[in-house]
Fold each of these.
Amino acid sequence: MRRLILCALALSFAIAVSGSANAAVHRLTNIHGSSCQSQDPQNQPLLYSDTGMLVKRGSDPSAVVSVACPVSWSQDASLTQSLQKVVVTLDWTSVPVSGGQTFNPSCMFYFITNNSGEIWIPLTQVNNPGTATPEFVFNSQISLSGTPLPAYGTVIGSALYCNNVPVGVGIFGYTIDTCFSSGVLSC
Amino acid sequence: MKRSWSSSALYVGFLFALGSSLASCKTLEPDVPLTPRPTAVQEKSLVVDTVKASGPVVQDLKRLVDRSAADAFAKTFGNSGAEVEYSGGVNCFKNGCLIEVTYRDVCTEKASTDRLRNFPVPLRSWPGIIYHSPPVMLAGGKVQVTWALLLPDLAADDNRGRFQRFAEGKMIDASIRPDVCSSPNTGTAQPAPNQGVK
């Protein structure tokens, strides 16, 4: 009987401790490409569908447009733990693979803090290069060596900006993976 | 009905475990004491002090880092002048380059920063994170900002290669600085028809 009592107490203690462990927190958010907006509202150059958005083909085949894709960010002001990592992936569709043109839509991921500080994370990797569906990766850990990012709860807005997107190209969707913690924990 | 000691202990243990689990489900945040949000000064120090403390740039890349940071900045925002002054020049360290900029007014600061957001300027290809500190209001309506062009670890071959490709690539001068602010100390930017076109 004593053994049973000890087992019950040990089990409850283990569950209680694991529940309050000081862990790094991951948040992964997927966003549909139709969230992206053109920075030319007058001409409405974007077409929306269930597969995201597409830049309409007009009379000028070499035209480019500027696109802003909003990124959701939790407004947990109480989360003052430092951001350890932000990784954004952006999935393109219908990118031309012939014609000798280099696909360089000039994208950066941007966020602003409650103090009006601004942070820009550059493109760090391209998956599936040379195909119609490349994936762009913006990884804070690669583009930063030891300089801390602001705390999670100080971010009040964020977006992906691409200012050189050719006509006929689309965005299927994008994801944001954030990880924050109070100590030097693996993210 | 008489409950045995063992079943009572299990029952109490179960309730305790359930309570603990529910308590930990209330929030996603790690169980650490909450601290207040950093002020603008603290936020800037977090980045600027860490960059300054990182030491000198790797010796064999120092000239390339200094030159390409200064070039990219000037070809994005223009050279130092009456509207935008770079008082201390470009100072590069192992973790990045710092540029302290004084803008003529709020409107000029906003118009200048919008260039990075809205146009494919050379700084858009900088291979590290770019930080723009919270603006500080000075006497006479001037605004001071510190830009930090952070660097990846250049000791790693991949990062060094990426940086060298940026530094040796052709940088188009996109530094047109249209006076979108009609007069000093205006708070709003006026649209300029040729903005973004050299």
Amino acid sequence: MALDTDTVRRIAKLARLHVEEDALAPLADELNNILGWVEQLDEVDTEGAEPMTSVVEMVQRLRVDVVTDGHVQDKVLANAPAEADGFFVVPRVIE
Amino acid sequence: MTDTTDTTADAIPDHLVAHFTSRIGHNSADLIEGETGSWEIVIGMEVHAQVTSESKLFSGAPTDFGGEPNTHVSLVDAAMPGMLPVLNEAAIRQAVRTGLGLEAQINLRSVFDRKNYFYPDLPQGYQISQFSDPIVGEGRITVDLEDGESFEVGVVRIHLEQDAGKSVHDRIPDQTCIDLNRSGVALMEIVSKPDLRSGVEAAAYLSKLRSILRYLGTCDGNMQEGSMRADVNVSVRRPGEDLGTRCEIKNVNSIRFVRQAVDYEARRQVEILEEGGEIDQETRLFDPDRGETRSMRSKEEAHDYRYFPDPDLLPVVIDQAYVDEIAASLPELPDKKAARFVAEFGLSEYDAGVLVAERETAEFYEAVVDAGGAKRDPKIAANWITGDFFRRLNADDLEITASPVSAAQLGGLIDLIADGTISGKIAKDVFDEMWDSGNDADANRRGKGPQADQRQR
């Protein structure tokens, strides 16, 4: 699998990363190196092995449905660049 | 890894949605007669239903509607670094309960995935949802129309996911205010097959689904508060031919709007096709003030959600005993209840349907029949409720739970008619007085009949 610069441009956009046009090709090379490294795993015979979603042989533990949290508005907003009347304030999002 | 090919704005990619529909609409009047011939409307719905629970899907913050902004929020819901989701058992239970209520397959193993996109009301930068392994698989809903016809709509799946926060655009000029109170609240997304053929059918589907969820107690169905929202997929085709390109109308928040949105959107598509144009697959919004749909996102914003299993969560595994225990606790659902009212009480199917549509109405009716250990005539009780009682409820714009006349009191009034104390005609006046005073029938019949007594309530 090899990524071209178009794909890298697209991935960057989806991740909201600004990548200069002349940095796309080197970045593609770097990503391709990483993919190549991961693709070594293809050498392992996985015939008949279940795909894993986790590396531990456990199932999800469940929490009892009780209210134990919330009402920490000051903490929630502590790092907000802007706030008003308890809201986060962001540049207008047009729909 | 899950599929990373482009998807549209739909939550479910095409290859996972059963687009096959064999249903033929029952009413030829549902076809749109265009200049060039007839068109059939094909509708599928994705309904987001807020799970009734105390706390959120992955945090211990409360789920109550309203509240000061950003107070029903934990650091998990605000996606602070290092916070980890801890799954709420009630959400799993409610989803299974809903699945059982829709006669659906329950998947004993399901997986939570990340659906990646950026929006200010989604602090994580992804929504935790279920993609290829949802907790509930195929089921069905029997939908009833006003003309007495019923038809079955297939349910493709139900999955659990997080709600997003709320964006307020009109509070500060040129800025958007974000309230995360809803962020992380558990939603069930209930996906139907494209088995609906008109705006009326789509509205009836939503109405029946809402009724079932309220019977089950898994969602309060309060559409004004956003507890239930529908994404409506609409396309048109020549009857019997392949499906056309669809548009998705997002976040329709009333049953009436669903009907209006479908009617408008289908006509819009027919107009375009008849002029030789093509339908752009896109997301649209319904504007209730103008009664029209309009495009919501530009096409270059084609979404690529890059789903993958959430590494913070393990596969959810439940056992059959857990499912069986929930199944044993299900209430009698509206279809069964209506059938029993017909068989046991001799009601017409129409009256039975009216009485079971809301759980509270059905309970009130049965209480009127049984109150005080009496066995009152079930037909007379039904006539009183669907007649004078509903008339006053509507006139005063009251929910049945706020009725000034209780089931026992209405039962008492029916007893006075049955034993000949008052006539049916006088009973109507007594009923109105009971309604206004809140007194029992005995107190209100003073001076109305020969054996009027002086007993006050």
